[in-house]
Design brief:
By secondary structure, the chain is an alpha/beta fold. Helices cover 38% and strands 23% of the residues. Helix 4 (91-101) runs parallel beside helix 5. The chain starts with a strand and ends with a strand.
Length: 141
């Protein structure tokens, strides 16, 4: 079993957690802690930011934190085994930084199944995490 599992999810896309959440819980066992990570994407351009209302990113971070807290209370009967975090920026970089900051020994994340149009075996973000992570990564489909 793993002591510290990082589980990045996107609450807007249940496929990012429907299978990954049970896998993370199994891998954390009876003693491990799951660090639930939501990420607010960086717009990447100050020009884009000028079109958004003042304080938009801060409000988005607060809203994400509230939604993740609600999610955790619904899905984790033992609240002492989950910690909620909100990251901001590029998805793969944010996941890797969070894994280092929380000393994760495993990252569990979902990836789309390839289809006839896409021959890519894992998503772009999952691929970047797998390639650059110093800890094990389980990609769940």
């Amino acid at each position: 079993m793993h002591d510290v599992v990082l589980l990045p999810i996107d609450l807007q896309h249940p496929e990012s957690w429907e299978k990954a959440l049970p896998a993370a819980m199994r891998l954390a066992g009876d003693e491990g802690v799951i660090h639930l990570l939501g990420i607010v994407h960086d717009f990447g351009s100050s020009m884009v930011a000028t079109f958004l209302p003042k304080g938009y990113e801060q409000k988005a971070l607060q809203k994400m934190k509230g939604a993740l807290d609600d999610f955790a209370s619904q899905h984790f009967p033992d609240q002492s085994r989950v910690q909620v975090h909100v990251g901001h920026g590029h998805v793969a970089e944010t996941i890797l930084k969070a894994a280092a900051r929380h000393k994760a020994d495993l990252i569990v994340m979902a990836s789309d199944k390839p289809d006839e149009l896409r021959s890519i075996l894992v998503s772009r973000d999952a691929n970047a995490v797998v390639r650059h992570s110093p800890v094990s990564v389980m990609v769940v489909r």
